[in-house]
Specification:
PTS-regulatory domain, PRD, 5 domains, alpha+beta, 17 helices, 4-stranded antiparallel beta sheet, 12 strands
């Protein structure tokens, strides 16, 4: 019996403790409201906390705090979307109209070594259409604490990332009579790319598995048996020229830049998966402008964030101010199904369940015929479908049903 009493007491204490914890933040809030003489009203938690922080940071008196709170509430209410507002159409208009002011410049250069970066109309099209390949892929690589402040180490690491194939540093001569391939290393290219000749020779030996290899100074010779096929010999040469001797696949150029007191690497070409595996790289901040690659490597939520950041950056570069919420709405639509689908007939429009909605975009006859053959039904639930048949749409005033009595 005493054990039951004890358990009841402990349960009661736990409940009291929890109720105290739950009421603690409410009491704190009430104290702050009383202290500054302001009320939260309909402000959300983030806006309310930022308001309180601003009041404390600038040490405002009661009158100033009230005035600031009124202004914040006024702006907050003004920026709220009304129930039934056609947010999609507003977002399309807000981005489409200033989008006509975008430059026709397709690229600009980041830094002196000419790492091209997509810009203007072409970049916006790329993002919105959900293209699987970016025309000017580029990465911004942030480094860990050990090397980010050491320029020499950063430059050495940047050079080690460049994708170097045999054809970049080798000149080959084939002697079909003696069945030998002569490989000559280009000293200038090796010095320019900060490579080690002995390391390269080792790599070539590993790659050239057929034939005998001899090294004489700056040259290497691969000899084959007399009965060896000329076609096979030619294929061996081509294989050597195509093979990667150093670096990361896809990285064509790198430049080192200083940003906020640390050195970062900008690249022409991208390979996020391989770069994130490297010990020297800060994986939390390193990014690429290839949205499809981000969503494959880091997931669809990361892809959504990349769409928002890239679109916002491209519009901002051209001096166009668009409310971030419009861009967020577009990013949500593009990534809704867990993969990137562009605003094109093969993307989000194909996934529409309504035959009229599909027909309203492009290839009208094709969609209506296919829907007829499949015996699809049109439930007239969306905006487009109701406009087609001339019914009031359930948006804005159409969402409200009022009956007036005389």
């Amino acid at each position: 019996m005493p054990s039951k009493k004890k358990s009841k007491k402990t349960a009661k204490k736990k409940n009291e403790k929890q109720s105290k914890e739950n009421t603690a933040p409410e009491k704190k809030e009430e104290k702050k409201e009383a202290k500054f003489g302001i009320k939260r009203d309909n402000l959300n938690e983030k806006a309310w906390n930022e308001l309180l922080e601003a009041i404390e940071a600038f040490n405002l008196n009661e009158k100033e705090a009230k005035e600031l709170a009124e202004r914040v509430k006024e702006k907050y209410e003004k920026n709220q979307a009304e129930v039934g507002e056609a947010v999609g159409i507003v977002a399309a208009q807000s981005m489409g109209e200033p989008g006509t002011q975008l430059t026709l410049r397709t690229k600009h250069f980041a830094g002196a070594a000419e790492v091209s970066v997509g810009s203007g109309i072409q970049r916006v099209e790329e993002i919105v259409d959900g293209r699987s390949k970016t025309k000017y892929p580029t990465m911004t690589i942030y480094l860990n604490e050990e090397i980010r402040k050491d320029k020499a180490k950063v430059e050495a690491f940047a050079k080690s990332l460049i994708d170097i194939r045999g054809e970049d540093i080798l000149v080959t001569k084939e002697d079909f009579k003696t069945k030998t391939i002569e490989l000559e290393f280009l000293e200038e290219k090796i010095a320019e790319k900060n490579l080690d000749l002995n390391e390269l020779k080792k790599k070539v030996k590993e790659l050239a598995k057929k034939g005998k290899i001899q090294s004489r100074g700056k040259k290497m010779f691969i000899s084959f048996p007399k009965n060896y096929s000329l076609l096979k010999m030619r294929n061996e040469t081509l294989k050597l020229l195509r093979k990667r001797l150093q670096g990361t696949a896809g990285i064509d150029k790198t430049i080192v830049m200083e940003e906020n007191g640390e050195f970062i690497i900008k690249t022409s070409g991208t390979n996020l998966k391989a770069i994130l595996r490297k010990r020297e790289v800060d994986g939390k901040r390193t990014t690429t402008n290839d949205i499809a690659e981000i969503s494959k490597v880091l997931g669809i939520e990361a892809g959504r964030t990349a769409i928002i950041n890239e679109l916002h950056k491209t519009l901002e570069e051209n001096g166009i101010v668009v409310d971030l919420r419009h861009i967020i709405l577009l990013a949500d639509v593009i990534t809704l199904d867990g993969e990137i689908k562009g605003t094109v007939r093969t993307g989000i429009m194909r996934g529409k369940s309504s035959p009229f909605a599909r027909a309203a975009f492009e290839e009208t006859v094709k969609h209506l015929l296919n829907a007829s053959f499949a015996g699809e039904r049109e439930y007239l639930e969306g905006v487009v479908e109701n406009i087609i048949v001339g019914q009031p749409i359930k948006i804005g005033t159409g969402k409200v049903e009022l009956i007036m009595k005389e």
